[in-house]
Specification:
This protein is of the alpha/beta class and about 325 residues long. About 40% of the residues lie in helices and about 15% in strands. Strands 1-2-4-3-5-6-7-8 form an 8-stranded mixed sheet, with helices on both faces. Strand 3, helix 3 and strand 4 form a beta-alpha-beta unit. It is globular.
């Protein structure tokens, strides 16, 4: 949404707004998994939901999710780290507990701008950016615009490169009419992810499954799930290709930034080939691969991944004399 849009125009485009009671109702079925008090940021009349847990003067960890997840994906990391770090996790517009407008530019550049507006409004500095799936290009899109605010990178199963080819399971969901029926009508993309995105199926308990699916409980609430699939820029003619190309070209500026790459090797979408592209780009990065984990690496390899994250943070402390926000 352009900055110049009026608040009234923004609200007129909303098909699925949630009030506080509605948000509490969604979380009620899995509150022990997601025991957080969310906040709302105004984006021209749309409510952008985010978590802000931990000490306000602590080092900032900014978590950016993908599709079809939401800030729920980061729950274990937030619970493990928020006693020492300020943990901020957003829900993209159309996702999680954010508003889900029917008419909205669900494109990469817009999601980058939304994250940018929140981070600048909160004046986040010396950020440790933690990204997964679509959170990769969105988070790195913000980071490449504000490299002076980025202190460390933690990158999990994602991509930020042009020239990719979508797996057939993704291409099917992009098929006109059929894709809309499957993704929005049947919630096939989100439901399939609860099975196909992890290897340790016992980790997908009924409460966890409810957590992943609850925000996407109707045709109207699944619009972003479809739009993210449609927004994969597979050719230069795609509307989001130029923004992805901008991000890719800017990634070398982080070659000296402390970086941790964590990968589930069984991911059929962001395969180890994507990891190798990051390794080639950032040869000094710390790399951890769990051979038995899938795309939802923080579910499959939760304990190991959290240990890797904590050790990386401890090994790369921020200089105390610069202050933090």
């Amino acid at each position: 949404m352009a900055r110049g849009r009026s608040r009234a125009e923004g609200r007129s485009a909303v098909s699925a707004q949630l009030d506080d009671a509605g948000r509490r109702a969604i979380v009620a079925g899995f509150s022990t998994e997601y025991p957080f008090e969310g906040k709302l940021f105004d984006l021209d009349g749309l409510r952008y939901h985010y978590l802000d847990e931990g000490p306000r003067d602590g080092e900032v960890l900014l978590f950016v999710h993908g599709n079809p997840t939401w800030s729920f994906y980061w729950r274990h990391a937030i619970r493990a780290l928020s006693d020492r770090y300020r943990c901020i996790a957003v829900d993209h517009i159309g996702c999680g507990l954010s508003d889900k407008p029917a008419r909205y530019p669900y494109q990469l550049a817009q999601h980058v701008q939304n994250l940018e507006r929140l981070a600048l409004a909160l004046d986040l500095r010396r950020i440790t950016l933690v990204v997964h799936d679509w959170g990769g290009p969105i988070g790195l899109g913000f980071a490449t615009r504000h490299a002076d605010r980025i202190a460390r990178l933690i990158v999990l199963n994602t991509s930020a490169f042009t020239g990719g080819r979508a797996p057939w399971r993704i291409r099917v969901c992009r098929t006109p009419a059929l894709g809309a029926l499957a993704v929005r009508g049947l919630n096939a993309f989100a439901v399939a992810a609860t099975v196909m995105a992890l290897e340790r199926r016992e980790r997908m308990t009924p409460a966890v499954r409810r957590g992943y699916l609850a925000p996407y409980d109707s045709f109207a609430h699944r619009i972003a799930t479809l739009r993210f699939v449609q927004d994969i820029p597979l050719s230069p003619s795609h509307p989001s290709y130029a923004e992805l190309e901008r991000i890719e070209n800017a990634l070398p500026i982080f070659s000296a930034t402390p970086t941790c790459l964590i990968w589930g090797a069984m991911d059929w979408c962001f395969t180890p080939a994507h990891l190798e592209r990051f390794r080639a780009l950032w040869p000094k990065a710390e790399v951890h691969v769990d051979e038995g984990a899938g795309h939802y690496v923080l579910e499959d390899a939760r304990e190991r991944a959290l240990r890797w994250i904590e050790r990386f943070l401890n090994r790369n402390p921020l200089c105390s004399d610069r202050g933090s926000k």
